[in-house]
Design a protein that fits this description.
The complex is a heterodimer of chains A (111) and B (118). Chain A has 111 residues and is mostly beta strands. Chain A contains no helices and eleven strands. In chain A, 0% of the residues lie in helices and 59% in strands. In chain B, strands 2, 4, 5, 6, 9, 10 and 11 form a seven-stranded mixed beta sheet that branches. Chain B has a four-stranded antiparallel beta sheet with strand order 1-3-8-7, with no helix packed on it. Classes of the chains: A mainly beta (111), B mainly beta (118).
Amino acid sequence: GQNIDQPTEMTATEGAIVQINCTYQTSGFNGLFWYQQHAGEAPTFLSYNVLDGLEEKGRFSSFLSRSKGYSYLLLKELQMKDSASYLCAVSSTGGGNKLTFGTGTQLKVEL
Amino acid sequence: DADVTQTPRNRITKTGKRIMLECSQTKGHDRMYWYRQDPGLGLRLIYYSFDVKDINKGEISDGYSVSRQAQAKFSLSLESAIPNQTALYFCATSDQGLSPKGTYNEQFFGPGTRLTVL
């Protein structure tokens, strides 16, 4: 089976940097996704890592260490609109590359 | 126009009723998925389909059935709705190959259907 852990809630200040961690256990790892989901809305794709290292995309970066089963999403220059849930999801080769989602980290950005 | 659409967007029904949620996509993807989302439990996979003739159960398929009417359409049915099926339901699609972003299996989500079973 698969197990994905991420913190339930985090709070950060506008303009600051926040790191959201995700640890996972899976067989046949085939990539890790981060999605953003505002309340009541659909999840939207943020980033994808399949190799170790950092992927940077504007204010958002994501890091992966396959040997440690660990990823983080880094959000810089936080804005109020970044208040949302951030979902970590793992793709594995078993079962046809389905995604298994973590329960999400609810980020609150304060003034 | 949205690439993945779901109907209805909101539905209130009573215990024991049969309900169908519909999903359509214009992305040309072969793979389609149904999830439910509950507070504190995240997104859980109900059923998935890799093409019209290939339908598979997810982790929580009991009490649900699906129909893949065409490549673009994937419906979820609750044969006899019960209150603990009250949830937010999402349909998603993905391609089987590389996306333009170079990712495998990136999923694109519909806007969701909020279902309440009384």
